[in-house]
Specification:
Strand content: under 5%
Helix content: 55-70%
Structural class: mainly alpha
Length: 160
């Protein structure tokens, strides 16, 4: 029987890495990871050499809901406070409220137009605000899609 120290130093193979990446994908789809954190952890899972490397990717995620087969949950206790914060993706205030900001933009443009001299340039606020708030979303999603397709190709090659 291996001790926890020996267990975390065992080397992992492609099957364990793929299982860990699938578990991270499930946590991402469940809203527990934002795209940047998901990408960071997925990259770390690709580079993992030992079980300890993989276990460290799941320390702040709930083990009972989604866990990769072959990747045991760490035996660490998680406090209720850290468990609650792990379920909420960490985004900035603007990131959390950008849909509301976009909804208010036409009204701000109208107020600016009528209150400050009937200048039509106020209406350029709407697309400019949209470009600022949503810039990079497509790139992040495209990067994640490419990585997912690559992982699927790798797992398809490994199973044959």
């Amino acid at each position: 029987m291996t001790t926890p120290e020996q267990h975390s130093s065992l080397r992992v193979g492609d099957e364990e890495r793929t299982a860990a990446i699938e578990a991270l994908n499930e946590h991402w789809r469940g809203g527990r990871l934002d795209p940047a954190e998901h990408e960071r952890r997925t990259t770390a899972a690709h580079a993992a050499v030992t079980r300890g490397d993989l276990d460290s990717l799941f320390t702040d995620l709930p083990a009972g809901q989604v866990m990769a087969p072959g990747v045991p949950a760490s035996g660490r206790a998680v406090s209720a406070e850290s468990s609650a914060t792990a379920l909420v993706p960490q985004r900035s205030w603007v990131g959390r409220h950008r849909d509301q900001l976009m909804g208010v933009a036409p009204f701000v443009s109208l107020v600016g137009f009528f209150a400050l001299g009937h200048n039509w340039l106020w209406f350029l606020l709407i697309p400019a605000l949209g470009a600022l708030l949503y810039a990079g979303d497509d790139q992040d999603q495209a990067r994640l899609d490419r990585r997912r397709r690559r992982d699927e190709r790798r797992s398809g090659r490994d199973s044959s």
